[in-house]
Amino acid sequence: MALSLATPSFIVERDETRCIACQVCVRQCANDVHYVVTGDGEVASDPARCVGCHRCVTLCPTRALNVRTTPLEFRPHANWTASALTAIYKQAETGGMLLTGMGCDQPYRIYWDHMVLNASQVTNPSIDPMREPMELKTFLGAKPERLTFEVSEGGPQLKTQLSPQLELDVPILFSAMSYGSISFNACLSLARAARASGTYYNTGEGGLHPDLYQFGANTIAQVASGRFGVHLDYLNAAAALEIKIGQGAKPGIGGHLPGEKVTPEISRTRMIPEGTDAISPAPHHDIYSIEDLRQLIYALKEATHYTKPVSVKVAAVHNIAPIASGIVRAGADIVAIDGLRGGTGAAPTMVRNNVGIPIELALAAVDQRLREEGIRHRASLVVGGSVRNSADVVKALALGADAVYIATSALVAMGCHLCQNCYSGKCNWGIATQDPYLTKRLNPNIGARRLANLLRAWALEIKEMMGGMGINSVESLRGNRDHLRGVGLNQVELDALGIRSAGF
Predict the structure, then answer these.
(1) What's the CATH architecture for 10-99?
(2) Cα torsion angle, 160, 166, 170, 176, sign
């Protein structure tokens, strides 16, 4: 084997006084880190293969294992960091792009953590969500500028024809994760949890497995550039449709599902040959203008008899505000925006870490632009890109979002340990893999229950925070930036977010 100059990222420690050579670690590691020493049954480890998923540590019955990051092995250098040097070593050895999974791990400012929420005191009493009703119900879709009624003997009757809406019990949806990128058991967990929680999950660009059609009332069917799995039954099975233009982890480029992940079931679902790479092009080859986008939006509405809202998903980029304005004017009912820190199954590392802008800044810019143009009511805003907890949700709503997408949070709830090795297909937690031996590690009943628990817990916390503000409905919170203050932000950042500094 050729010498590698890239040192292992992790150290695998085995306490020989605790190890009983049960070989659980050998069976549980899909990366072949642990192996049996020929002859005597002793177990050893190769740290060069370790991705830090913690599966072996978690399941070791005697707590004999520990995995820790490798101590600093390079001379300290502010510019030529260990990660920069390692990347060069790897590319010098392979001659290819470096791939990664999950979201951006660079130390960009996380604006959620620099915004604090308001609370009512004395003159504006808070509301106790334990004893008073709190409304989290959210409707996604185009809203009329005004309502007209006709008064008859039976009382007033609504004359305004309303656009189709998605009704959510909580302002949280499961973001796009395709069948192929994640396992069927993971897809099934998301679908069951969406039904149980009164929300929706997004198919991503992988089509819809026949066994998931039963969850159509809680499904958002995505139409991406590759059009994998897109047909009339697929469109009409879902509650809403989403045209994917871009995503936060890889703006401007297409997707790539390796052929080894294209099993017979995925082949049938995506309508591609078994074992072939599913490469989605960077652009939609029928969209080169807002007019082209409008044509596709209305083609999808026509195909579904104008009964379903149509969303357009884009990545958060520098000119996101005018882009969103054009999308709304093209007839989209929902604009979904995915920020810089959004996750992915596979993306070039350089693209993931250096392209796009944080979702907080994008959301603030888009909401303000649509309000200034008087078209904010014509589309709902859904944002994603590292929504980590209920406080992030509340802050997103106050910045102007109607609802949020979560993906990484959902995967973590199912067991993901963010080893960022999703593209390999060797997910030890049975999530980002199609290996039958690995996929059975994720029980969809347990996965669905954990996801539903997560949304239930977040909903309780959202109600508590709203009650503390003296608000009993998300409608009163949405776009109410007076409930936000910045901490540790400069004036340019405060102006971009449209909020004031704490203390003012």
Answers:
(1) 2-Layer Sandwich (3.30)
(2) negative
Question: How many CB atoms neighbour CB 13 within 10 A?
Answer: 13
- The model carries a pTM of 0.94
Tokens coding 405 = 């997408």
Question: At 207, which helix (H) or strand (E)?
Answer: none
Which DSSP helix (H) or strand (E) runs through 405?
Answer: strand 403-406
CA–CA distance, 338 with 365 (Å, rounded to integer): 14
Q: Which residues are within 8 A (CB) of 236 and not within 5 positions of it... i.e. 6 or more apart?
A: 303, 304
Q: How far apart are CA 450 and CA 436, in angstroms?
A: 22
CA dihedral 155, 158, 164, 168 (to 10 degrees): -50
Per the structure block, which two tokens stand in for 281?
């092009």
For every residue of 103-133, DSSP letters joined together read S--S----GGGGEEE----TTS----TTTS-
SS3 content of the chain, % helix, strand, coil (to 5): 35, 15, 45
Nearest to 217 by CA among 238, 197, 201, 234: 238
Most confident of 95-104, 120-129, 213-222: 213-222
Distance between CA atoms of residues 137 and 474, nearest Å: 8
| pLDDT tens-digit map of 226-253 | 999 999 999 999 999 999 999 999 999 9
Size of the chain in residues: 504
Per the CB < 8 A criterion, the answer to whether 399 and 114 are in contact is no
Predicted pLDDT at 1: 44
Q: Which CATH class is domain 138-501?
A: alpha beta
pLDDT digits (tens, 9 = 90+) for 325-361: 999 999 999 999 999 999 999 899 999 999 999 999 9
Tokens found for residue 490: 């400069």
Domain boundaries, the chain: 10-99, 138-501
Are 140 and 402 a contacting pair, CB within 8 Å?
yes
Q: d(Cα 194, Cα 189) in Å, to the nearest integer?
A: 9
Q: Which residues contact 239 (CB under 8 A, 6 or more apart)?
A: 166, 200, 216, 217, 218, 219, 220, 308
Angle formed at CA 6 by CA 417 and CA 46, multiple of 5 degrees: 60
